[in-house]
Design goal:
single chain; mainly alpha
Length: 101
């Protein structure tokens, strides 16, 4: 699965907005209780996704080696239809993310 820069920016922006909001008080002032911070499931999912993204290598060496070998052997072929579908998929995702922002 390819993660677009727009998707990373969206996750990062949502995470930053959540952090800027700061902890929320659970009751009126003066009750003498401690403040309680609850992290929403969405925030937990975003944090998990960001942690997973950080563990991924920027360059997948095994994929590059495989493609390089296929090109050198003359066996690398890409369907024009596959290329067009991927371009349209990426445009659709980018457009959906732009509409959410």
């Amino acid at each position: 699965m390819k993660i677009s820069p727009q998707q990373v920016q969206l996750i990062s922006r949502l995470y930053q907005e959540q952090r800027q909001q700061g902890p929320k008080r659970t009751g009126p002032k003066g009750q003498g209780g401690r403040d309680k911070v609850t992290i929403s499931q969405v925030s937990q999912d975003i944090q998990a996704a960001m942690a997973k993204i950080e563990t991924l290598p920027e360059i997948r060496e095994e994929k590059i080696a495989e493609l390089r070998a296929a090109i050198e052997q003359g066996t690398y072929e890409v369907s024009a239809r596959d290329v067009a579908e991927k371009i349209l998929d990426r445009l659709l995702v980018d457009e959906m993310l732009r509409d959410e922002g």
